[in-house]
Amino acid sequence: SVSALPYFNASQLEVYKCQSTFYDHLRDELISSKRFQIPKEDLDSFLQIPEDEETDYWDKQTGTVLAITESALEPIISSLKKDLDDAIKRRDLMQLDSVVDLHNLFTDYLYLMLAASTGYRPVTEPFGRLQHIDTRTSKYFISDKENHQDSIGRFIYLPQTVTAQIIAFYDYLNVYVQAYGRLNYAVSQIFNDILMSKTGLITYLKYDQKDNTVYKEKINNTYLAKRLAPFISLPLNWSRHFIRSYKITAYLSAYSPYQGDNDNLFGYDVIGAFMGHADELGYSFFGKFSGLKSKELRRLSYKLNDLLKTCGFEVVKLGDLHG
Length: 323
Description:
Largest sheet: 3 strands, antiparallel
Strand order of the largest sheet: 1-2-3
Number of strands: 7
Structural class: mainly alpha
Radius of gyration: 25 Å
């Protein structure tokens, strides 16, 4: 009984190939049978699986009209990198306003880089905390709000550029924790909270000129939308549409035999696992009984790294206080 089996994720392609193999076997048996005298043409017609275009098996694509293109994102990133470079040149540790300005610009850059490469849903603590990222393996744990039967989050692999940027982010935080440990303990503690994962890795700062003090901004979707509006004035989930619409081939199942351009071949189950979608039964695509291999998610990270480079993202280092 099928109901007695543990649940496993069988894609439509597996079902189609199983059905096709069974029909071929049945056809051969009936043709060679002496009991049934059925013409081969009649068997072919009776046991024929509907055409691809009728079943939509082979052209299952992902994408959306609510998506910014790589060509539109590239000048935005280029302009932001220039602003960052100018802020680095103006940096003065004794002037807290310049430190806050630089940190917030860098946080904008980090936000956009993570948004363009992770499919993270807009939440009150965007992109989680540094402890959720393993820089040795590029594994990234994402807590999901979507209800799944078997998980409360997912793991993906970060593109190499993002991992290198996070390592540079660690260096930056370490330098500022030590520098302000002697200059301004309250400011040092803010950077230390980010470093030690006591607060989100996306933390914006506010300079109070009257008290010459730095505070952490209270982040919510309204604040983020306003903060990012000069760069991308779209709903905060624009990045999920951006990734789904990237020029990759979304095939039915990347872990099934297929002869084609494997470098650009990704199953909808791979995309579903990466985006944190649940399947029709409410289970993760990359669950306990799934046939999906983690190397497919790793391979997708390589493709997304190419996307980041196309958009102009590169590693920005802020740890050197001397420029």
